Amino acid sequence: MERVASEAQVRVFIRDESDVAVARRRARELASQQGLSEVEAEALATAVTEIARNIVVHAGSGEILFGLIADAPRRGVVVIARDTGPGIPDVEQAMQDGFSTKHGLGFGLPGARRLVDEFEIESKTGAGTTVTLRKWTSAESR
Amino acid sequence: MSDRTDGFAHEYFTALEGYLRAGHESALTRAYELGRRAMADGLGVLDMAVLHRGAVDVLVVSAPARDQPQFARAVADFFNELLSPFEMSFRGYREANEELQRFSESLRRQKEEVEIVNRELESFGYSVSHDLRAPLRSIDGYSQILLKEFAHALDDDGKKYLGNVREAAQRMSQLIDGLLSLARVTRTEIRRVDVDLTALARRISERLRAESPERGGRFVIEDGVRGNGDPSLLAVVLENLLGNAWKFTSKRKQAEIAFGCEERDGKPTYFVRDNGAGFDAAYADKLFGAFQRLHSPSEFEGTGIGLATVQRVVRRHDGQVSAEGKIDGGATFYFTLGGGRKP
User: Fold this and answer.
1) Which residues of B touch A103 (CB under 8 A)?
2) Per-position pLDDT tens, chain A of length 142
3) What are φ and ψ of residue B269, in 5° steps?
4) Residue B33: its chain A contacts at CB < 8 A?
5) What CATH number does the domain containing B207 carry?
6) Is residue A94 part of a domain?
7) How many CB atoms neighbour CB B30 within 10 A?
8) Strands, E, within chain B: which ranges?
């Protein structure tokens, strides 16, 4: 489990699109609180949107935990998205872009992966999926 | 604007207006979703810019002057959301492109390696064939001397065995010739010109008839057949195909061999047809492999290299070669010359 300062932990339940909006706002707020640049914060918010959407579409409901993390001198945000949905039978395949789709390559889980610094996914068929994202401050940050 | 972008424009306007009024995150989510849908519909970033400007042009009028800085900030945030899906997808394309480049680079390297190995194999084959000829000449030559000058010292069996040695040596020499010509075909630069195939086929058929004047039969060679290719390599093809046809009709009282050109699958296709021994259609794909023979040397002499050479020449001309036939029902060989003109 992530070493998250408990006072910084925020939990957002995800059931529908309005919850996706809440999760995005949290992501952006915490990112700027940690000193990530606007572009970095937006990238994290976009990644969170995609995994929150995934929960709504594939699992029906779930939760997203946010935490502040530090690895001096870097600071960052960790996002843990959990659901108890059907799970992903083939994670490797799910992490690949749909080359066959005509437009919009790079959405969903692979899209989210490219927008953050660290990306982990764990899924068990029938038991649900957990996605962990981390986004750190960089030279670009304020 | 098209109906499609009109629909987007309306939705975008409504969402932006709502965001400016209430500042809810859910309006930003709608902008994001719109961007995502626009991408899936094949719209571009500039379409989004037009959409955005259209909405801002209308909304800026109703914004009080003192709220201008907040207004500017809010529309920028909103526009950001619309463009985020494009950014995400762009990263996907960039990564896919890098992967493709790595892949094509590794393909290029593999191709180079294969070419090097092929060249080495060819020159190896060439020098082996070359070096094998000298000892072979000795075997044949000394056998001949033995038969001629020491015939008195040999009984009938001895002479027969020595005759077998010579026959084997000559057969091996033919095999080597075949291999050398196969190697040459692979190495020669192709020089494409317009070739009078009718004249070429006539010359070859006359030579074949002269070689066995006792045989009956006829060659039917179509007039005015021309092809675009390397003259000496095309001569190799016709010599092999007509030579084969002549050979495999040797047991017919009336051999009939035809050469011409017809349209097959929309391409001018040359053919050599005979009424000879034919072959089992089930083995048609084996015909063109080097050293593959469907008849024993005792039935029809040969090395099994001729058709492999034909195939190689035709392939080097970007053409295709195929064969039809049945046992004792004759055979037809077809070939095309890629890029050739219709005769």
Assistant:
1) 39-42
2) 445 554 458 899 999 988 999 999 999 999 999 999 989 999 999 999 999 999 998 899 999 999 999 988 899 999 999 999 999 888 888 888 765 455 567 888 999 999 999 999 999 998 999 999 999 998 877 5
3) -125, 125
4) 17
5) 3.30.565.10
6) yes
7) 23
8) 193-196, 218-221, 226-229, 256-264, 267-274, 321-325, 331-335
Please tell me whether residues B197 and B331 are part of one structural domain.
Answer: yes
Task: Give yes or no for a contact between B288 and B310, defined as CB atoms under 8 angstroms apart.
Answer: yes
Q: Which of B73, B24, B80 is nearest to A22 (CA)?
A: B24
Task: Find the length of chain A.
Answer: 142
Q: Which amino acid is at B49?
A: A
Contact A17, B25 (CB under 8 A): no
Number of domains chain B is built from: 2
Which residues have a Cβ under 8 Å from the Cβ of A113 and sit 6 or more positions away?
A47, A95, A119
Q: Classify residue A69: in a domain, yes or no.
A: yes
Q: Are strands A10-14 and A62-71 parallel, antiparallel or unpaired?
A: antiparallel
Structure confidence at residue A92 (pLDDT): 87
- Point out the residues of chain B with pLDDT beneath 70: 1-3, 290-303, 339-343
Q: Does A5 touch chain B (CB under 8 A)?
A: no
Strand order in the sheet with A10-14: A10-14, A62-71, A74-83, A128-136, A118-124
Indicate if B77 and B199 belong to the same structural domain.
Answer: no
Q: Tell me which residue in B25, B28, B89 faces A104 most closely, judged by beta carbons.
A: B89
For residues A36 and A44, the answer to whether their CB atoms sit within 8 Å is yes
Whole-number Å distance between alpha carbons of A109 and A53: 10
Q: What is this structure's pTM?
A: 0.61
Distance separating alpha carbons of residues B305 and B308, to the nearest angstrom: 5
The DSSP H or E segment spanning A121 is strand A118-124
Question: Measured between CB atoms, does B76 come within 8 Å of chain A?
Answer: no
Rg value, chain B, Cα: 37
Compute the distance between CA of residue A61 and CA of residue B209 in angstroms, rounded to an integer.
88
Query: Per-residue pLDDT tens for B216-258?
Result: 889 999 999 999 999 888 998 999 999 999 988 988 888 999 9
Burial of B250 (C-beta count, 10 Å sphere; 0-12/13-18/19+): middle
